[in-house]
Specification:
The protein is mostly beta strands. It has strands at 3-7, 10-12, 18-25, 33-39, 46-52, 58-60, 68-73, 78-83, 92-98, 117-118, 122-126. Strands 2, 4, 5, 6, 9, 10 and 11 form a 7-stranded mixed beta sheet that branches. Strands 1-3-8-7 form a 4-stranded antiparallel beta sheet, with no helix packed on it. Strand 7 (68-73) and strand 8 form a beta hairpin.
Amino acid sequence: QLQLVESGGGVVQPGGSLRLSCAGSGFTEDYYTIGWFRQAPGKEREGLSCIRMSDGRTVYADSVKGRFTISRDSAKNTISLQMNSLKSEDTAVYYCATGPLNYYTTRNCFSPIRASDWGQGTQVTVSS
């Protein structure tokens, strides 16, 4: 059974940085795609970035491009999200997620309905 566990959230001032991690277990293939989403109060869940574990191909949403960097450690089935130049509007619960091979891919990874396995989420608060 797939399991994803996020860590690294917290409180940071505007302009600051945080690094989130997502540890995965139970994968039976080495070419899953794993994505990062966030959800702020009263808003829909938003896809931010994803990475294909087999070759490191990455995709970014316009809202985070140039500020956030996704990376992987395939040996450890872990991905990270380095978040720089944080803004108050980045405040949200951040989730990592994945889905069935060939269903959740880098072509559709911003669609929450494509992901079937989610972590519990980690809170990120950007405030002065």
